[in-house]
Amino acid sequence: MLDVTKKEKTVFICNVCGYQSLKWLGRCPDCGLWESLQEERSRPAAGSRRSVREVQPCSLTEVEEQDDDRSATGIGELDRVLGGGIVPGSVILLGGDPGIGKSTLILQMLSALAKKQGKVLYVSGEESARQIRIRARRLSALHQDIFLATENAVETIVAMTRDMRPGIVAIDSIQTMSCEDFSSAPGSVSQVRESAARLVELAKRDAVSVVLVGHVTKEGILAGPRVLEHMVDTVLSFEGDRSQSFRIVRTVKNRFGSTNEIGVFEMKSEGLIEVENPSEIFLAERPFDAAGSVVLPSVEGTRPILVEVQALVSPTSLGTARRTAIGADSHRLALLCAVLEKKAGMDLYGHDIFLNIAGGVRIDEPALDLGVICALASSMTEKVVAADTVVCGEVGLAGEVRGSVHMDMRLNEAERLGFRRFVMPGSSSDRLSRKPKIEVIGVATIQEALKTVLV
Ligand SMILES: Nc1ncnc2c1ncn2[C@@H]1O[C@H](COP(=O)(O)OP(=O)(O)OP(=O)(O)O)[C@@H](O)[C@H]1O
Ligand SMILES: [Mg+2]
Question: What is the DSSP track for 275-312?
């Protein structure tokens, strides 16, 4: 009799969300992306044939405790996003655009760890050993305890790791890895998922930390199904404008630390250099007394960072006006434009609007609304927001300015960098824990804020 369970069948899998369909579809019904379904041969999952094992649950108090000895890499900006260091046996996924510097960061991290705690393993499926040596020399990361393997087969990597027992193994990249008993091509959804699953199992069983490098698709999503993000403990995203030298590592998910934390680096020929005072760098090339430019005190994780937001409002030459936001959420921009039109009587209709957060950073905090409103109004009216002023507060649909968290932290940073005026929500200014050294102006509505800052 034909054993149907062993029969291969063709399925179409969305390479973003992992949705499966028996026939090809132009658009994924689950995540809505076009042309994301790929044909793959699927075999029944091994799990379905596994015999039932006897597993006895045990009391949580009886579970052997593992030291939460994080190994700090010594690269401060990286340790910050990891929540203090790498937890033994954890799996970290580092995603980023092509050529952004993922391999560079990994090599610098491995070099720092090799110096501190001995053997580490770097598995590359993309580059030759010679290429990696050249890079390591340029980064001054050559170290005898960094072991290198150019390999694509996950089974071999797992066996090699068990044999060698390094403290950490880095896989560059997960899209080039494949499991031998899986017929689909490397980089396909099922290969990525299966390879990652085996490496996660290796990390948990043998308490080896695993770092996976992941490519990002043109839509800016980590290639491979979303499930990859669920499988790992920490997801780091490596961002930055390739035309500029700043690079930002952001925590997207962290089972062992806070998210929204960012680490800032500068890419130089000798590698990624930590930037300890990002505010100073982000504000370095700020135009003074230019309409449309406002400084915002944002808080990323546990650190305040001042950034400059620039707005350009100009009459449109096309039929439909454009609303473009770089480094900020475009839906939020549309909302703030509507509030500005309705509550401050500003006629933005027929104007193209461009918003940019300088320095290639991305900020998604609602506390920055008021700064964006001021930048838009400043560009529209050609009135300047004084260069020594910072603006912060969330804006509601009725044009009210709402309180924001961490106001003391934001104030400290503004004071440290020599700003003289801080426009903040009235409710927050009443609750400051100390007497400010600079002028603090509490506002309740956007009209009040605009009257205060536009001169
Ligand atoms: N000699 C150099 N001087 C300055 N910067 C350099 C030099 N060589 C490489 N870089 C920088 O390193 C970047 C490439 O780094 P890296 O190879 O680590 O990126 P990656 O994210 O691993 O790329 P890929 O996606 O191709 O694997 C380049 O974009 C460039 O900015
Ligand atoms: Mg690389």
Answer: -S-HHHHHTTTPPTT-TTEEEEEEEETTEEEEEEEEEE
**5 CB under 6 A from ligand 1?**
no
Question: Does residue 223 register a pLDDT over 70?
Answer: no
- Residues 351, 314: contact at Cβ < 8 Å? yes
Best probe residue, ligand 1, of 171, 212, 267, 268 (max atoms within 8 Å of C-beta): 267
Confidence of residue 4 (pLDDT cuts 50, 70, 90): very low
Q: Three-state SS for 335?
A: helix
Q: What is the mean pLDDT of the chain?
A: 87
* Residue identifier of the C-alpha nearest atom 10 of ligand 1: 269
Q: Which atom of ligand 1 is nearest to 238's Cα?
A: 21
Distance, in Å, from the CA atom of 340 to the CA atom of 258, rounded to the nearest integer, reads: 34
pLDDT tens for each residue of 71-108: 899 899 999 899 889 999 999 999 888 889 999 999 99
Q: Using the predicted structure, report yes or no on whether residue 355 has a pLDDT greater than 90.
A: yes
Residue with the smallest CA separation from ligand 1 atom 4 is 269
Distance (Å) from CA 126 to ligand 2 centroid: 7
